[in-house]
Amino acid sequence: TIxxxxxxxxxxxxxxxxxxxxxxxxxxxxxxxxxEARFDATEITKNPLYMPDxxxxxxxxxYLEECKAMQNSAGGIIECVITGVPAGIGxxxxxxxxxxxxxIGAVKGFEIGDxxxxxxxxxxxxxxxxxxxxxxxxxxxxxHAGGILGGMSDGSPIVFRAAIKPTPSVASTQKTINKNxxxxxxxxxGRHDPIIVPRAVVVVESMAAITIFDAMLSNMxxxxxxxKDFYKK
Length: 233
Fold this sequence. Notes:
Layout: H1 2-17, E1 21-29, E2 32-33, H2 54-69, E3 76-83, H3 96-102, E4 107-112, H4 123-126, E5 130-132, E6 138-140, E7 148-149, E8 152-153, E9 158-164, E10 174-177, E11 183-186, H5 197-220, H6 224-231
Antiparallel strand pairs: 1-2, 1-3, 3-9, 4-9, 5-6, 7-8, 10-11
Helix pairs in contact: 1-5, 3-5
C-alpha cells in the first residue's frame, strides 16, 4: 500500500502541473450518506472519517461507536472526482481505472457516473445532451456518464465510486472450519478497526492518479502528430 500511495503522490503532483485535480472522500459510511446540499470540500480533512459534510461525519462517528459496542464493523463508499482531464484520454476498452481500483483490498464494487442507478433510467433520462457553451465549444448539459464515453474521457469531470466492505476481523464470535474439517467457533484477538473506508480514501486517490497519468503518457504516442512533435524537437 505504501508503494501505491508514494507513486500516487508523485503522479498527483505531475497532474496538478497539467491542471488536473483529484478530490476523494468518504461518500457514505454504513447507512450514513453525505448531504450534497452541505458538501464542503474543506471539511474532508477536518474529521477522521474524511467526509465533506460535518453533520454526516458526526452521525457516522456515532454509528461506528455503536458497531464497536456490538463488536461489529461497517463498510462504506468512497467517491472520487477528477477535473481537468482533456477529452480523448483512455481507450475504447476503458478497464484500467476499474482494474486499478479493484486491485485495492476490500473493494467490492466500482461504478462510473450514475453507475448502477442507470439500470432504473431510460435512454432519454440517462443520455447527456451535447450543447455549446458561451465560447462556442462543445460541452454537455449533464454528466450521467461520469466523464467517460466509449472508454475515453469526454472533457467532463470523471466521477467514480468504490464500495468498501466491512472489516472482516470483528471481535464477535464467528463460525469457521478447522484443518480437520470440523465446525468450530473463533474469537479474533488484538486491535482491529471497525471500518476500513477512511484509510482507503488516500489509496483510491493514489491509484486514480497513477492510472490517469499513465493514460496520458500513453496518449502522447497514440497519434502520429504527437510522435512527430516529440522527436522533431
